[in-house]
């Protein structure tokens, strides 16, 4: 009911801003720009002190602004991609600018919607849990909608995160388990790849060949499981 009071985001012209310019923000911005989903000139972020991060974003056309407030003022959709321990202070600082015509998104790990909505002063908020393979366009992301986020808002965010992988929708009460599975899961897969490669080396393979075979084998197996929809043991 509350969502109907808000202006719809114009999907053909909206501007996207990132509060926080880390690797995950870079991956999402780059995926959106390079896939053609959102032109880079419509994406902005703010970088205060790290020249390398500025270079990273500017290398694919993202606008780098002086302050977080400039990013919010310019954006229709604002993604909070800061570390969990600072997200509260950042949202509270920007609260006067977080008007209800802006769609707010958080990818801050472990930060619940009820807190985000309280700090922002409204509930047009969507929480997303992405994972590190977003850097290569293969993220496994999950989202849930805040109290005033509309279905159209959800579709917009799904398309945005869909540009860097796959996205599902789930109840927030499942998010701790989701973080454990898809958030931490890549680290376990890296260990499996390393173990397979080590086995190959122990059997006499050159390290480069063993690592290539192990990585491609895991990629192929995952692709078969995903595309066939069958239980892994039956593929």
UniProtKB/TrEMBL annotation:
Pfam families named among the record's database cross-references: F420_oxidored (PF03807), P5CR_dimer (PF14748)
Q: Which InterPro entries match?
A: 6-PGluconate_DH-like_C_sf, NAD(P)-bd_dom_sf, P5C_Rdtase_cat_N, P5CR_dimer, Pyrroline-COOH_reductase
- Start and end residues of each Pyrroline-5-carboxylate reductase catalytic N-terminal domain: 15-110
Keyword match NADP:
yes
Q: Where is the Pyrroline-5-carboxylate reductase dimerisation domain?
A: 172-233
**Which keywords does this chain's UniProt record carry?**
NADP, Oxidoreductase
Q: What is the superkingdom listed in this entry's lineage?
A: Eukaryota
**HAMAP family of this UniProt entry?**
P5C_reductase
Family, per entry = Belongs to the pyrroline-5-carboxylate reductase family.
What protein name applies here?
Pyrroline-5-carboxylate reductase
